[in-house]
């Protein structure tokens, strides 16, 4: 039985756990590591964590949460590819737009307002001028392809990578459906060409190349799904995974904006965690806690930089870091719940209503489909069943009943059909010489 196919499960549990873990790791990286480094604050608790995990894994610059980003990319490649194959170009494009942009636009506008009021959200150290143009470019993610680069949302750089991958899937969808291995090879060839020409067409193209340099991680998730669903053989999956790894490491050698040498190790850790979760799926059980968190990871990913980081900056000088961190986390999850109920969940419902194939299609349980793209089983694309045309049988002429035959035409009875009756036995005469006197 394949992982995730056992009866009684409604969700892919390892995907729920991986998304929840990735979101918490990224949140820790920003609210603990990034904040304490910028404000020169130390915490005994997190100093112990750093000495046991962060420093031995060479993640001291960005914290133990750094593997959370490649883990998100692996999940995306694993989930999005079968989603596109099943939905088609139109439905897939509508779903992706309504998945990413409603929450992003709200966060960009509120972040711009907070910065104008003098608050301190999570920033990257790049230009952060708040103007109508920069609000527009950040809300559409075009800012990551323009020089000078103005960044208002410190974590949104991963979203432009997702968008580029979605566009690749849409462009190659016919090939993905027919020859998945060839589509993956085209994707990797595209990445190689962009990296080879990264500095040939100006600074804007260089920013595009930096974005494309992370596509191999998403393709790794795609390859894992293809091998797990038996759409490509294992040896082909090994070759493609090796090609993804080589391209990603080579991009780091070509100075694609990576600030240290921990990116490759972070990918290895994320890949190990992902594969362990996939192999352990049959033993994992659904839990309300990580299901709830998995459905809200996108909101958590976007809101913690504005709400959590802002609250931490405002409260820490008064109550200290540890207590301020607790307040910041509570405030973040409050904002996440409001955002999920008012923005993210309604946008999911709208996407599925707009993406209906036919007006006369049977009504679907929309609420049951809203699971943050986590399907009820390991994502598979069922092969279309061939409908064999059944030829109608020609009408048969009515059969006539046999006419009764006259009495004299009946065949004679078989005399041996019944045994002949026995003749009555007569009493035998007594033997001679024995007469009664």
UniProtKB/TrEMBL annotation:
**Region Disordered, annotated ranges:** 381-437
Q: Which residues cross the membrane?
A: 12-37, 64-85, 97-119, 150-173, 180-199, 205-225, 232-251, 263-280, 300-319, 325-343
MF terms from GO for this chain are: acyltransferase activity, transferring groups other than amino-acyl groups
Q: Name one GO cellular component term.
A: membrane
So which residues are the signal peptide here?
none
Q: Which residues form the Acyltransferase domain?
A: 13-333
Keywords in alphabetical order = Membrane, Transmembrane, Transmembrane helix
A Gene Ontology biological process term:
polysaccharide biosynthetic process
Q: Where is the composition biased (Pro residues)?
A: 392-405, 421-437
Q: Taxonomically, which superkingdom?
A: Bacteria
What is the official name of this protein in its record? Peptidoglycan/LPS O-acetylase OafA/YrhL
Source species: Kutzneria buriramensis
């Amino acid at each position: 039985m394949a992982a995730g196919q056992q009866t009684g499960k409604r969700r892919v549990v390892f995907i729920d756990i991986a998304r929840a873990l990735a979101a918490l790791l990224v949140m820790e990286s920003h609210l603990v590591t990034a904040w304490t480094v910028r404000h020169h604050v130390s915490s005994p608790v997190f100093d112990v964590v750093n000495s046991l995990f962060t420093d031995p894994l060479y993640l001291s610059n960005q914290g133990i949460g750094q593997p959370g980003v490649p883990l998100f990319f692996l999940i995306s490649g694993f989930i999005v590819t079968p989603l596109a194959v099943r939905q088609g170009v139109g439905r897939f494009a509508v779903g992706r737009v309504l998945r990413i942009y409603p929450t992003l636009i709200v966060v960009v506008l509120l972040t711009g307002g907070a910065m104008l009021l003098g608050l301190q959200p999570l920033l990257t150290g790049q230009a952060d001028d708040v103007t109508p143009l920069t609000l527009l470019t950040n809300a559409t993610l075009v800012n990551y392809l323009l020089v000078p680069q103005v960044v208002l949302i410190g974590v949104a750089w991963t979203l432009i990578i997702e968008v580029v991958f979605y566009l690749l899937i849409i462009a190659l969808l016919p090939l993905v459906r027919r020859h998945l291995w060839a589509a993956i090879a085209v994707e990797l060839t595209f990445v190689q060409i962009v990296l080879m020409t990264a500095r040939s067409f100006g600074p804007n193209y260089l920013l595009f190349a930096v974005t494309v340099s992370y596509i191999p991680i998403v393709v790794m998730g795609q390859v894992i799904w293809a091998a797990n669903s038996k759409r490509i053989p294992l040896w082909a999956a090994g070759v493609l995974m090796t090609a993804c790894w080589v391209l990603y490491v080579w991009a780091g050698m070509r100075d694609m904006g990576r600030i240290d040498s921990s990116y490759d190790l972070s990918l290895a850790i994320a890949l190990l965690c992902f594969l362990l979760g996939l192999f352990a799926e049959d033993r994992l059980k659904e839990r309300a806690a990580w299901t709830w968190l998995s459905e809200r990871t996108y909101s958590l990913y976007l809101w913690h930089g504005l709400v959590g980081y802002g609250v931490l900056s405002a409260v820490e000088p008064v109550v200290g870091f540890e207590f301020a961190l607790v307040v910041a986390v509570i405030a973040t999850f409050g904002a996440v719940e409001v955002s999920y109920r008012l923005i993210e969940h309604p946008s999911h419902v709208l996407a599925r209503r707009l993406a209906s194939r036919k007006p006369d299609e049977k009504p679907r349980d929309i609420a049951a489909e809203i699971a943050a793209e986590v399907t009820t089983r390991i994502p598979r694309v069922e092969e279309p069943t061939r409908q064999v045309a059944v030829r109608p049988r020609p009408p048969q002429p009515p059969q006539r009943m046999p006419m009764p035959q006259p009495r004299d035409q009946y065949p004679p009875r078989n005399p041996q059909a019944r045994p002949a009756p026995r003749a009555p036995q007569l009493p035998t005469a007594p033997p001679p010489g024995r007469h009664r006197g």
